[in-house]
Structures
1.
Amino acid sequence: MRVVTSVRLELGRIFSELYEEGSDGVPVFKTFIDGSWTGSSDGSTFELRTPIDGSVIARVARCNEADLERAVRSARENQRKIRSLAAIDRIEIMEEVSKIIRDNAEDFARTITLEMGRPISDSPGEVRAVAERLRLAMEDSRKVSGEYIPGDWSPDTAGKVAIVLREPVGVVGAIGPFNYPLFIPSAKVIPAILAANSVVAKPSSSTPISMLLLARAFQLAGLPDGVLNVVTGPGFLGSLLAAHPDVGMISFTGSTEVGKEVARHAVGKMLHLELGGKAYAIVLDDADVRLSAAKCVEGSLRNAGQRCDAVSAVLVQESVADEFVEEVLKRVEDWKLGDPRDPATRIGPLVNEQAAERVNGLVRDAVEKGAVLLHGGQREGAYHQPTVLDEVPESARVLWEETFGPVIPIFRIRDEDQALQIAERSRYGLDAAVFTNNFYRMWRVAKALRVGEVTINDYPRHGVGFFPFGGVKDSGLGREGIGYSIEEMMVIKTIVFNLEPAGLGKIRRPRTI
Ligand code: NAP
């Protein structure tokens, strides 16, 4: 199934400050606090294992509460530096970051592949997405402005005017997941800094290096010291960050369970939560079946299904189900599983062996309850075969739980109402897809689905966030998007001017009663 050779994390010269070579040749990474590359205060580290073969590819500073305190203090004390910098300078820093990322794209892409197993044919796309996100965010940041409100439209405020400003929140805590280790942190750090906030970032401990490389790009681009700080280490640091009184906003992307835990700690703060998803693809009987099958396969298997917007169950109308299944099986053959460093590989390992075992547990549960296994179904270490399950029964967990693996569960439906009932019962509400050629059905189904984004005749993909997305129900709070993210990281301040002393107040007409 796979060929594994020894895995080594090698980086170009611009990243040499970030690590020292350990006695066994494994690099020991520092973290980035107050503008310096530093170990944790007690010198401890944690091992980073690649899912490619489970070997240790790095050791990383294991920050503790004192380190987090230092990072937040630095962010708080240095926020004025970014706040007082002209907006055009912030844009120029972003332009430089973009250039550094593009010039070192191979290092970024290889790191993503080694950290989380994304095929090397795909990782450069994540790096390009960051550069594109930067470009679009720079454009949109210029549109963020304020308003002028004349007060004489209300008797309460006649004689006054107000201007409404958008100001930075202060310190933003950015907590990211493993599945887009470069893009998701950048989608938090870029808008936060464009909006003149300072940041403390806590990357996933499965994939901390991508975030550290990003921090290096910001440092080299001339971001003032202390405006971006990174704390690497276990999950509890995220809760400490969320509870810290000097942090004004938490932007969290990750699982629903941890997101709720973060929300419990972040009481009274601004909160953005991008949580788990269960995107149903609804294939109706008038759909283009070949197109639907092609899109559902790609939507389920890209990034080995480790996407919050992945198609994770297909609800296909009975009369076209056989044809749909046949088309799916033809296409699944093209998804080669193997070593993600091989350019021919389209599905690499999942993030770790436990993740693959969890996914396989969902497959076994469905088969035990009567689903028909048509393709795949096995795992070896962290590698899970692309898997097709037909006639999945309603009792199967895979119909309801987030899959986060390369599985295509197919559930046959009588009609669109049954599909809507299933989607309504789901605890998640991030994405859905509808395949139909009937305009009125598109509208009816799209309007009825309680999700943040519905995609018609394609699989859901948040991409660089050009279209806003986000969850309802257990999938989150707030909206991600280019300009939307910048505005979400700002607070409104109203300044009211009383013009009456200047003789500029408005005259009210005499009242008869
Ligand atoms: P996760 O386990 O929830 O972890 C996310 C982040 O939270 C990591 O940095 C993790 O640190 C940290 N964390 C863990 N325990 C914590 C705690 N008690 N308090 C505060 N922070 C804590 O998620 P994941 O497995 O990395 O990512 C996959 C999940 O993210 C999926 O559910 C997926 O749907 C979701 N996701 C959603 C979107 C979206 O746009 N809605 C996008 C991408 C991913 P450690 O790694 O150190 O434990």
Note: The first strand starts at residue 19 and ends at 21.
2.
Amino acid sequence: MTAKILILPGDGIGPEIVAEAAKVLECLRQDHGLDATLDYGLLGGGAVDALGEPYPEATRRQARAADAILLGAVGGPQWEALDRPLRPERGLLAIRADLELFANLRPAMLYPQLASASSLKPDLVAGLDLLIVRELNGDLYFGQPRGIRTLDNGEREGFNTMCYRESEIERIARVAFAAARQRARRVCSVDKANVLETSELWREVVTRVAGEYPDVALSHQYVDNAAMQLVRAPKQFDVIVTGNLFGDILSDCASMLTGSIGLLPSASLDARGKGLYEPIHGSAPDIAGQGVANPLATILSAAMLLRHTLDKPEQAERIERAVGQVLDQGLRTLDIMADGMTPVGTQAMGDAVVAAL
Ligand code: IPM
Ligand code: MG
């Protein structure tokens, strides 16, 4: 059956990096038997400009009809002054909620060719391969009530609600344990159970679910310690499972271990494996339009799309091998360049991956 892929380029460097990933998918379509159609839509600031909303009805219809979605990035300074519901980031949160994409997979693995690009000593990160499983539909991001209220004394107070239901914790824990079974069979659950009731319940439920996976070892860390461990001894981790906010923070931290946030793909999946795939970096407005952004995280996100939603592991590996080859050839964009190297641009990097395919 022909798979429907919806492409949402988004803002900033989004259109540039997505164009390279689309080239890669096109190449697989034409030369390697990938049976898929590529359709385009609007999300984020561009959608606000064109249609007045960051996640417009037209996009919602496209997104619901698609089998998988490939997203660039959203946001930029020109939309920061807008009312909160109109901000580009709201579009991203809205599509995650609308499609019930609760399981965010953020792998961080080090390409041996890039050990020197990490901010940590090479021996601390050599062979690094960890997976952050971040819950994406709950926590402070969506908890009610929320807002900014005025107190009796006239002072204003901002407030958000951290909450997790047992069923939400159970389903994300299962994703983490199942993922660990395909890997080194270790799960570290990250919470703040020494302070927060939400975390107390989180820990209890994750521990209970672990009983269904006796072949997977479960450990727990408080989030402050986990942040420290990630930069002290990151290779101790296999799968980290955590809530929405902690996962947001720890995944940026983990990305830097690999040398560049420009390399890390992600998948956001629903219960049936439909997914939205995006690089974990943002829209980088400071370098937008210059043709210097690294397209590899988006290209690798397309590989994850083929693996997780389209069930085409050979095609995914083909892309991942091609990325390894261009790194072997010494091609580097600005963000992963070592001293004395000449950087290649976004398009040249995409072309090199296509050539390697
Ligand atoms: C991410 C981003 C988003 C988040 C923002 C853009 C809303 O930081 O995907 O990690 O906080 O989830
Ligand atoms: Mg983030």
Note: The chain has a mean pLDDT of 95.
3.
Amino acid sequence: MPHKNPTLGDIIARRVGRRDLLTGLLATSAVAAIAPSAFGASAKGSPEGSRFSFEEIAHGVDETHHVAQGYRSDILLRWGDPIVAGAPEFDPAAQSAAAQARQFGYNNDYVGYAPIDATRGLLCVNHEYTAPEIMFPGVKQRQRAKETNFAAMTKELAEIEMAAHGCSVVEIEKGADGRWSWVRDSRYNRRITALATEIRVGGPAAGHPRLRTSADPAGTNIIGTINNCAGGMTPWGTFLTGEENFNYYFRGKLPEGHLEAANHKRYGVPGSGYNWADYHGRFDLATEPNEPNRFGWVVEIDPSDPAAAPVKRTALGRFKHEGAETALAKDGRVVVYSGDDERFDYVYKFVSEGRFNPSERAANRDLLDRGTLYVARFDPDGSGEWLPIVHGAGKLTAANGFRDQADVLIETRRAADLLGATRMDRPEDIEPNPVTGKVYIALTNNERRPEKTERPDQPGPDPANPRAKNEWGHVVELTNPDGDHAATRFSWDMLVRCGDPNRPEVHALWNKATSANGWFACPDNMAIDHQGRLWVGTDQGSAWSKTSGTADGVWAVETEGPLRGTGWMFFRAPVGAEICGCLFLPGDTAMTIAVQHPGIDGVKQWAPFGRESTFDDPATRWPDFKPGMPPRPSVVMITRQDGGKIG
Ligand code: FEO
Ligand code: CA
Ligand code: CA
Ligand code: CA
């Protein structure tokens, strides 16, 4: 059973004296959380004592992107760029799966970097999902995640979608002018797709009967990776990619009374958002009831070896992995933080059994196959515990249907339910700060959190998720004892509660110094620069007009000192896009920002357009702005005009 939540009264009583209470959320006059902004809507520089020194840009929405004055924003990589040697140039009117499998994929999400030297390195990029109504001529708007309107889809279009999913590895280099570009025909350039890439299975679930299918009777070799959202880089330079909403790709009905029925239901399978099952039977539950168990993992890719098979690391658990950022424990064990992005799901970390070997790279190859997965319980007094998800411990026994550790990992969510972990407001990126040792957790929103607990799987507010109908999200800061990422206890605090500080009913929490442009809603991807400063990208989805009224963007956020909890707006996305893939290259003189799904989310609410986008009639043609060219998800490279450090 999920643990009982304390009442709001208990919570208030136990948290007296904590910063959160002092600043007002749980007090009756919640507006005390912040004074109305002292600054107008115009851009301004950062105040005395700030760690940031750029001139803030303004909230707003239009068809292109904006960055703070004094910065360059170059389009580095676009959907369709011919990255693999011999790939054809992108032609939106003549797309093919064969071409797409060698071109940069759709909807760039996480961006990681493996440096080769000071001016060259390998960019590792996720391609999360596809939007056929805006990618292909003649495909009408569909209702996302609902089974409708695949009438115009064909096998070729579905396979273009499959080839546009997955990951890219692309060599990039810095020119004499300080600008970065991708390297044509580099031997490292590679696509990993949902269509054709063979992926090995590692860890306790490898070969398990529940992972076996007719195409793979050994349960060790999976075609493709899907819905690759955020990720992380390991200390040995490999790329971890999280499989997030894998349920959308499955259709059909399980055979009557099938043993996987409850498991699939807990993960929302079948999600029926795509019609790939019409052409590839493995996505049809009637044909392959175990296929969904082969997705929802973290996949490890070695960008330095284009011939190496990626590996699904099952020891890290199966859920809707948002990301997989790593840190080293004091004793050299490797820790991977990962959120399960679903309303009322959980925050996890994995601690390896072995230690990172800095002198012999190959010794780290299978480090992520053995270790302990934990799920977080946030206690009302500001402490918390990491609960081990280990077969045989507590309720994780045969009596509850877990025969072995593989069962526990395949059904990570149910295991976490039984352990009494804290049901969170959609955990997105989790970012350990390598300078301070603190860890930042983006809880993006949860408009379904009720005022009061009526069912145990949808509890009312708790201290770590303090707002009912949380449309705006918040950022929690976790502190490890002695800065040790392997510790099983932690303390936590609220960094910001997002949303408009000038609307009392929002119960936002920002530092008073935050300007009219410095606040944001729906934190998603985050990055820490090499000076240890936090940057947050947002994803409001179609709700942007309600949650903030501005397009998504990137904000710098103070985490220390008197300005803690102050945001500064640095970058703004074009209409309909969310921000992913914020990453600082070594030295902080270059920063990537992945702009995902331009022209798609909530464009109907943008008055100058006021309708849904299609291929022929998109809300924006960012970034090319050429007739006939649809909007293209792209990675933007930010540099300073004077070559200095960003921010
Ligand atoms: Fe793919 Fe949770 O964002
Ligand atoms: Ca995300
Ligand atoms: Ca991140
Ligand atoms: Ca999101």
Note: The chain has one domain: 8-36+48-71+79-244+296-354+369-640.
